[in-house]
Amino acid sequence: MYKKVPKKRYAITLGLVEKFISKDEKILDLGVENPLSNLIREKGYQVQNTDGEDLDDEFLQLKEIDADVVTAFEILEHLLNPYSVLKNLPGKKLLITVPLQLWFAAPYRNMNDIRDWHYHEFTDWQLDRLLEKTGWEIKFRKKWTNPAGKIGVRPLLRKITPRYYAVYAERK
Length: 172
Fold this sequence. Notes:
Layout lengths: L6 H14 L5 E4 L5 H8 L3 E4 L19 E5 L8 H6 L5 E7 L24 H10 L2 E9 L8 H8 L3 E8 L1
Parallel strand pairs: 1-2, 1-3, 3-4
Antiparallel strand pairs: 4-6, 5-6
């Protein structure tokens, strides 16, 4: 189904899942079923995905979902209003990854699919403040690069500039 998966990002994210989430906890993964949620499920975790609804508009129903932990891997940047989503999540634990804003690249947007635009490419402090303001206490942070394996100025910058940011937080 999926030909190419980002091995480094998935390996790091899976390591964070294993570090902070036990297999007896129910996970709500924001976003439709995808290769990463399937990998986590294959590792023995209980994962329920959202159904593709527009979370900018339908965030109140999230509170009603029975989940101990919420994961949001590469989804907050696609929301116009991540504040309302984060404020209305179920559970007491949250594990997020987002792409960081890069000074040498414009935010991503797919001209063939408006749902695949990045409305937010965060700096670390912006995501931290958003989480704190929505009632989450940050317990762990991690950044990593996304080398492209190509030659050029931008690939070199991608080797040394953190591209992804992960945060584990608990409800205050």
